[in-house]
Amino acid sequence: MSDTPATLTVDLIISLDGYASAEGWPGWWGLESPEYLAWLEEEGKKEFTTLMGANTYRVMSGMSEQATGADSGFSEEEGAALTGLAAMGKVIFSSSLQEPLAWPNSELVRGDAVEAVRRMKEAGTGRLMTLGSLSLCRSLLVAGLVDRYRLVVFPVITGRTGRERIYDGYPDVSLEMVGSRTFGGGLQMLEYIPTLIDGPPAGRG
Fold first, then answer.
1. Do the Cβ atoms of 84 and 44 come closer than 8 Å?
2. In what order do the strands lie in the sheet with 89-93?
3. Is pLDDT above 60 for 53?
4. Helix (H, G, I), strand (E, B) or coil at 74
5. Mean per-residue pLDDT for 88-92?
6. Residue 194 pairs with which residues in a beta bridge?
7. Beta 188-196 vs 148-154: how paired, if at all?
8. Across all residues in the chain, what is the average pLDDT?
9. pLDDT at 35
10. Pure H helices in the chain
11. Distance (Å, rounded) from C-alpha 31 to C-alpha 87?
């Protein structure tokens, strides 16, 4: 066991009203800026292991493979961000997927994802990051395993068409902001340290 446990960051993109996507809208709500995509590409070159569930694996591996085609339908910046995912180390939690996984650098883990991540954190140094996988993120937060919450908030409200409400089923959480950035197009990156709470923080009533 390492003296320095790994750190875990939940990494999410959301609309202002807390949805992960919207019916009829393209990926990133069609609002991704070149600056944001360049940041995503640079982030993908850093050393970390990505955690995800089966549904996210199926969607993202398909998009990553599609992005390698000559007529992928993605912009050059989108394609670079998606194809870069293939080189990243990935751990997939699923009881339905079968080995070998087609997406390069993907490890399949069966059983309890929370306990598996707990062991990963205790075993060594490094960074763990989630990708999508809302129920996995919620379970890891409830278990007290999340060190950072990083959100990229897109400037759109999808009250009529929004899908995948991110915070449904969450406990109450206090957030200490430790970082922020604004990208072109009004996208905001917000980074927090989360703390589970039983009620309103003392002294803030």
1. yes
2. 106-109, 89-93, 49-53, 127-130, 7-15, 148-154, 188-196, 173-182
3. yes
4. coil
5. 91
6. 175
7. antiparallel
8. 89
9. 94
10. 34-44, 54-66, 76-83, 113-123, 134-142
11. 26
Nearest-10 crossing angle of helices 54-66, 76-83 = 130
3 state DSSP class of 187: coil
What is the β-pairing status of strands 127-130 and 188-196? unpaired
57 vs 83, more confident: 57
Instruction: Name the helix (H) or strand (E) containing 4.
Output: none
Q: Which two tokens stand for residue 19?
A: 């949805």
pTM over 0.90: no
User: What domains lie within the chain, and their CATH numbers?
Assistant: 7-196 (3.40.430.10)
Percent of the chain that is helix, strand, coil (3-state, to 5): 30, 30, 40
Of 118-127, 131-140, 191-200, least confident by mean pLDDT is 118-127
- Written as six digits, the tokens of 155 are 């400037």
Question: What percentage of residues in the chain have a pLDDT greater than 90?
Answer: 60
Instruction: Report how far residue 85's alpha carbon sits from residue 174's, in angstroms, rounded to the nearest whole number.
Output: 31
**Three-state DSSP class for residue 8:** strand
